[in-house]
Design goal:
With 223 residues, the protein is mostly helical. It has helices at 4-24, 30-49, 58-119, 125-132, 164-174, 210-222, and strands spanning 136-138, 144-146. It has a two-stranded antiparallel ribbon with strand order 1-2. A hairpin with a 5-residue loop joins strand 1 and strand 2 (144-146). Helix 3 (58-119) packs across helix 5 (164-174). The N and C termini lie far apart (179 Å).
Length: 223
């Protein structure tokens, strides 16, 4: 036989069990989940941003950083343009220096070659200049030097550098076909325009000239 106290205790145990089961199977709606996530995110953001509260609003800070980066880019572009201007100025300066050096070189090297070639009766002074130009240069001190085939400075028998005038004269003597024919002298002339009583300089005859070849043969025969 069951007493009232036993019945009441049984009822209370049953109620506690039902309440536990109800709590174990409790579910949350999507809104409740979103609210909990929002609260968690707010709490985390507040905790993190609390260290930088003195710096101001994060959006304002982001704007300041972007503006600074933009300013840096503009300054880099300006520096690039300035560097280009400097390069252009340097290029113009180099061109002016090269032009000046070219004028000096023409005055101190090429002009003396042409004048010497004309003085020693070259057929074509410009042609002689083009043929001997590589053997004449300006040194670092701006002095004219005559070079040999190996590119070394040439000296005369006295140990002095050979002058352009002497160099051109010697070159024409070694290449007589670049020299104009010797003009005829006064006196009794032969059919080829050379006096019979004048001494013929065979080294100055132009062997491309048929009359000079004939004179050369006659002179050699008479000798």
């Amino acid at each position: 036989m069951t007493t009232d106290n036993e019945t009441s205790a049984h009822t209370e145990d049953t109620g506690s069990a039902d309440q536990t089961n109800t709590q174990a199977v409790k579910t949350y709606t999507q809104k409740e989940v979103d609210d909990m996530m929002a609260k968690t995110k707010t709490a985390v953001m507040k905790k993190v941003s609390s260290k930088y509260e003195d710096l101001g609003d994060p959006d304002e800070l982001r704007t300041i950083v972007q503006q600074y980066q933009k300013t840096q880019q503009e300054q880099q572009l300006k520096r690039g343009e300035f560097d280009k201007i400097l390069q252009d100025i340097a290029a113009k300066k180099d061109a002016e220096i090269a032009k000046r050096d070219r004028i000096i070189e023409s005055y101190k090297v090429e002009t003396p070659i042409i004048e010497a070639a004309s003085r020693y009766r070259a057929v074509n002074s410009e042609q002689v200049k083009s043929l001997v130009r590589n053997h004449v240069r300006l040194n670092a001190d701006g002095d004219v030097e005559v070079l040999d085939e190996k590119g070394s400075v040439r000296y005369d028998d006295n140990g002095r550098p050979i002058s352009v005038d002497n160099f051109v004269q010697t070159w024409l003597q070694q290449n007589p076909h670049f020299v104009q024919p010797t003009p005829s002298t006064t006196g009794t002339r032969t059919s080829i325009g050379v006096s019979q009583d004048s001494k013929v300089d065979l080294s100055k005859l132009d062997m491309r000239n048929p009359e000079h070849r004939k004179l050369y043969a006659e002179t050699r025969k008479s000798q």
